[in-house]
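New to this. Comment on this protein:
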Amino acid sequence: MATIVYFSAQTTTRLCLKSHLKGLARSCESSFLSANRGPPPSLLPGLTWLSRGAGVRFMSHGTAGRLSSGRTRRGALALSGAAALTAAAAVAGFLANGNHFQRAEMATRVSRAEEKKEQEAEITERCRGFMSPPMTDISVLQSRKEEMRTKMELLIMETQAEFCKALEEVDGGTFKVDRWERKEGGGGISCVMQDGKVFEKAGVNVSVVFGYLTEEAAKQMRSRGKVLKGKDGKLPFSAMGVSSVIHPKNPHIPTVHFNYRYFEIEEEDGSKQWWFGGGTDLTPVYVDKEDAFHFHNTLKEACDKHHPRYYPDFKKWCDRYFFVRHRGETRGIGGIFFDDLDSPGQEEAFNFVKSCARTVVPCYLPIVRKHLNDSFTDEEKDWQQVRRGRYVEFNLVYDRGVKFGLATPGSRIESILMSLPLTARWEYMHEPAKGTREAEMLEVLRNPKEWV
């Protein structure tokens, strides 16, 4: 005669219980096979695990488990006498060791808590290396560490710190760290070094702002093909980025600029539009082919990790963007530039931006060190001042970031105009003599070259 056994246990650890009962099922099946020379149908794939509060029952999908004789026992798993003894012993052992599962559950909770603690400690540790605490409170960053806003803010803070420390090392000076807030939402951290040994003016800014887009700013975006649908005429946005312009004293050390940014807009239906933008470009006073190759090749290697078309496409975009139309010349020898990057996916786009941001030190500092001790004449310094005048013209007339900043309420003018040099020169009808290095530079600016 078959013995009916009901399985139940007062434990809240379902995963542990499930694992244990699966083992029990295998034990029962083995006993059944020994006694009956065949598998019990109720232990075949139709098996289910039913949970009712703290109790768990081991049952089949149907209302009965069939014995080889064809008899049915409704609501129970029918086992042979040998299997019943095995099952009973297993259940007794399980009940006697209920505390084991509670301890396992507790250990799991502790493990997860420790993992969370480690992640929070990682963010805290990263923040210690910044030039200033991040604009967003560290606890908020920890609570939303998976969001792109957090990932991007940490990246731009790291980029600022890495570049500032590299510049301080080569110059010997110290950046003034200026933290500011925007009453409409957010703020920024401006790091500026003036009248150093190497750099006349070096600025590396971070901004993290949010609020509502002005109509003028929205108009600029719509002119680039953005379809923006606000609620009651309002478009909530958040924007963040790192931007830097370095003006060296020595005319043989080029000016460098980079900017990497992330923009997010919430539309009427609650959906979000997002995109990345940025780039790095070089503005030398004199042509140095070796410098140009190093700079462009470093950028190309970063781009090629993500897509073979990125460098050639973004190099051309850079040449088009940094073009002083009223002069008919580019601002410098270019680099890469892109905007409105919202494909192939958010993580992929972010990883590309991260690769680009991490080139700012290796693409520029070797050039700085190479020319640290180059001598220069008064004439060469004058030519540098004239070229700086062109730099100012582009930034004030064409630069999209400057225009957006000036059109955004609460923007910090000092940080926006940080890109301008301490000194510049405008000479009436200036034209370099043919055959000079100045004329060679102007030829390159009027006819952009492929450097890689």
In short: The first strand starts at residue 3 and ends at 5. The radius of gyration is 34 Å. The chain has 14 helices and 15 strands.
